[in-house]
Amino acid sequence: xxxxxxxxxxxxxxxxxxxxKRLRDEAPVFWSEHARWWALSRYDDxxxxxxxxxxYSHAAGGGSSGGSGERFRExxxxxxxxxxxxxxxxxxxxxxxxxxRLLAMEEAVRALTCELLAPxxxxxxxxxxxxxxxxxxxxxxxxxxxxxxxxxxxxxxxVDDLADSGHPEFPDSAARxxxxxxxxxxxxxxxxxxxxxxDDLLWHLVEAVRTxxxxxxxxxxxxxxxxxxxxxxxxxxxxxxAILLQQHPDQRALLLERxxxxxxxxxxxxxxxxxxxxxxxxxxxDVELHGRTMRAGDTxxxxxxxxxxxxxxxxxxxxxDITRDIGGRHIAFGGGIHACLGAxxxxxxxxxxxxxxxxxxxxxxxxxxxxxxxxxxxxxGYRRLPMTLAR
Length: 391
Hints:
Blueprint: H1 10-14, H2 17-26, E1 29-32, E2 37-40, H3 43-51, E3 56-57, H4 66-74, H5 85-93, H6 99-103, H7 106-117, E4 125-127, H8 128-133, H9 136-145, H10 152-163, H11 172-192, H12 201-210, H13 216-247, H14 249-257, H15 262-273, E5 278-283, E6 287-289, E7 292-294, E8 299-303, H16 304-307, H17 343-360, E9 365-366, E10 372-373, E11 382-384, E12 386-388
Parallel strand pairs: 2-8
Antiparallel strand pairs: 1-2, 3-5, 4-12, 5-8, 6-7, 9-12, 10-11
Helix pairs in contact: 4-11, 7-17, 9-13, 10-11, 10-13, 11-13, 12-13, 13-15, 13-17, 15-17
């Protein structure tokens, strides 16, 4: 049977795992006529590409295509650069997002988690995404950046439009969303200059522009990146993890018996079905791999979720096992110089979220059949995910 890989087909989102396996086994370097890109599906190939920025470049592509891509290029952010510019920008932001600094937020993250869950302790049901998962990371990011918490829902709504390729007006809706977020940050930077100095990211960005570390359009790009990353990936991962625990009752029972396994359970969920399924690079030179020749200038899709389920790297990858010795091998947060700086914060939010959810409702059930999926080839999860709350 001929392999058809169309990441824009809605059926792809429902059950991508069988297709990923066929790609790994039969066509590890696959040209998708629908997407007009090459797809790498095996762990070693994807990992090698994440580490070889000279060949698999972020900067060469300059952002996504279409109207949204043009707007992204107007406000470039960290993921759109390679060294040396990427090195300078990453070195600038690394202390502001250092793991110790992010982990020190645990008390605040837990307090916010409890505040968001409290209204549902007597209701018996909630929407896991809309009522909780879409709010927690967005508010945490607002606090880090120095934005009013009341602005978080508005920013989240714009990211929704940006992220959902199932939107009837997509990609125009995505371009409008980028416009809204970028314009918001332009206004916010202007207002922040007139307020006292602080330790919020917004102030550090204002100072970076004033001292010539970066132009204002790159500072706005940082705002775009923080907003998108904070309001999308962790939000979807909370829902994905809840579904996995429900689909594997033996693993949920083990987790309730041994709560110390939660950090590893989160790593296994990230391996098994991370939010980020695909990231793209642009080739700077011809590459021959597995008998195929990819040409300079071609787009290459790195199938992270396929790589994380490659039996060449992980024994029995179809088994969700919260005791699995993962050893930091999954690439849910990317790899190489572009590995996600926010990974410690995402892990913290996921751990605290499920500590508090399982403490209140160990017998919860989610209902993806009544939920609403995002349709996006790059990140996958649920916009709405009904949840029954039970002890």
